[in-house]
Amino acid sequence: WAQRLRYHSELGSTNDEALRLCEAGVAHGTVVLADHQTSGRGRRGAAWMSQSGAGLLFTLILRPQFEKQHWPRLALAAGCAIAQVLQELCGLPAEVKWPNDVLIDGKKCCGILVETRGDYAVVGIGINVTASPDGEESVALADLTPRAVSREALLRALLDRLSQSTLVCADHFPELVDQVAEMCYLTGKTIGFSANGESLSGRALGISEEGELLVEIDGYVRRFMQAELVRVIS
Ligand code: BTN
């Protein structure tokens, strides 16, 4: 994929640029990378802030060759790939917070925003490398490791791993779920979240073969494919 890298020193949002490229019929595997975003976007319409050059900000453009109903798997696959690279390359105890954050010591170091356009899915990834936004439950890699982390090396390792994990989504997803299970931040915790407009709480038990979060609520195990505002209560 390296030859399909489109670098910009500054962009509004790499996801917006990626969505624009989808309309233009860009190739599968194209990557949009920026040093700085003036209007980076997070989930639920939130802004994604990062100081110029302090984050690794990129969007991977995919044309998944599997049914659309399985596209939500991409967020988990991306989280898994990122956590593994942070463990292996940076020696950090990264965990996946279902469905799409990567945490270290309970603090967010990476956010993932998957969006779709026709046959395309774009996977936007923001990693706090040398600094994280103030006043949030967030952390930068440089706060946690004395090893200098080069954004280039990180990007290379991530693209390599992402190309494998997004492929696995099609036919070998249970294997990916097994890997996520080993670094699932929520397992065993009492959590609150909202799903289908309902506010719920219960004990997270793990992740199903399909990538759903399993939560014990009032003695019953319920499965959630999507949820928002997931927070740990205890
Ligand atoms: C979240 O945690 O809410 C998701 C944050 C996703 C941020 C990344 S940074 C690169 C890409 N471009 C954007 O505008 N957003 C994503």
UniProtKB/TrEMBL annotation:
<keyword id="KW-0436">Ligase</keyword>
<feature type="domain" description="BPL/LPL catalytic">
    <location>
        <begin position="4"/>
        <end position="170"/>
    </location>
</feature>
<protein>
    <submittedName>
        <fullName>Biotin--[acetyl-CoA-carboxylase] ligase</fullName>
        <ecNumber>6.3.4.15</ecNumber>
    </submittedName>
</protein>
<dbReference type="InterPro" id="IPR004143">
    <property type="entry name" value="BPL_LPL_catalytic"/>
</dbReference>
<dbReference type="Pfam" id="PF03099">
    <property type="entry name" value="BPL_LplA_LipB"/>
</dbReference>
<dbReference type="GO" id="GO:0005737">
    <property type="term" value="C:cytoplasm"/>
</dbReference>
<dbReference type="InterPro" id="IPR045864">
    <property type="entry name" value="aa-tRNA-synth_II/BPL/LPL"/>
</dbReference>
<dbReference type="InterPro" id="IPR004408">
    <property type="entry name" value="Biotin_CoA_COase_ligase"/>
</dbReference>
<dbReference type="GO" id="GO:0004077">
    <property type="term" value="F:biotin--[biotin carboxyl-carrier protein] ligase activity"/>
</dbReference>
